[in-house]
Amino acid sequence: MPEVGRLAALTALWLGLLAGPALPADHRVTVSVFDYTPDTVTINPGDPVTWRWVGPDTNHSVSAARAAAEQFDSDPGRAPDAINHEVGATLRHTFTKPGALEYVCRVHPPFMRGAVVVRAVPDHVAPSIRSLRAGARRLCARGPRNCRNARLHLRFRLSERARLRAQIRRVGVPGSARPIRTLRFIGRRGRNDRFLAAGALRPARYGLTLTATDAVGNVSQPARAHFAVRGTTRG
User: Fold this and answer.
1) Interatomic CA distance for residues 143 and 70, integer angstroms
2) What are the domain boundaries of the chain?
3) Cβ 170 vs Cβ 203: under 8 Å
4) Quick check: 55 and 87 in contact, CB under 8 A?
5) d(CA 127, CA 211)
6) Which residues contact 114 (CB under 8 A, 6 or more apart)?
């Protein structure tokens, strides 16, 4: 009975975690080469944004514009000519008020600007990928021996605009659990029909895993497909 009771308690805890609210996504922005990357992020209320100084230039601030609904500053009280950070330094701020909040570098305000767009209505629904199909053909300049690139053809339906990551693995060979290619691109809502350069793929069978991440960081369930690369296909 004690074991049964313990198992029931663990099951209840696990179900409670599954039913609980989604954890806030931590959106990341790099500060480098007189730019914020990305310069605009869209988030849910209560989500944090983390800025990281990656260099080589580090004399930049992350400072809310004077009219912004929320105020934050990586260098409060410091004069612009005294602002500098170590490579790897970070600033993290959690946003609670909806709207578009602009921020600037106080050292380079005319051209180094960014924005955080906080949704008025939170979005915790992950995008979905349906009807994924994959195929590939070799691009051969002078016959099969000179095939150096493969064009990957993907067809799928997407529930909303999202950033997509396609990971390619060889099937049935040692170490095939590790991806040999990772491709990133933007997908649109609805039907997508895309050709992607996959680099040099030797003739073999491959598995592809596709995931989508929407504007606020919700990640889809992975969609999977298989395809074969044949070296005798004409370019």
Assistant:
1) 61
2) 27-118, 129-229
3) no
4) yes
5) 9
6) 29, 36, 39, 40, 62, 102, 103, 104
Q: How far is CA 15 from CA 8, 10, 12, 196, in A?
A: 11, 9, 5, 40
At residue 155, does pLDDT exceed 80? yes
pLDDT at residue 17, rounded to an integer: 38
Per DSSP, helices labelled H in the chain are 2-19
Closest CA to 194 of 231, 164, 149: 164
Q: Which CATH class is domain 27-118?
A: mainly beta
- Spatial neighbors of 214 by CB under 8 A, at least 6 apart, are 123, 126, 127, 160, 161, 162, 163
Q: What angle do CA 202, 208, 209 make, to 5 degrees?
A: 150
How do residues 42-70 score in pLDDT, each as one tens digit? 999 999 999 999 999 999 999 999 988 89
Which pTM was predicted? 0.73
* Cβ 101 vs Cβ 112: under 8 Å: no
Distances (CA, A) of 52 to 34, 94, 213: 13, 15, 21
Quick one: fold of 129-229?
A: Immunoglobulin-like (2.60.40)
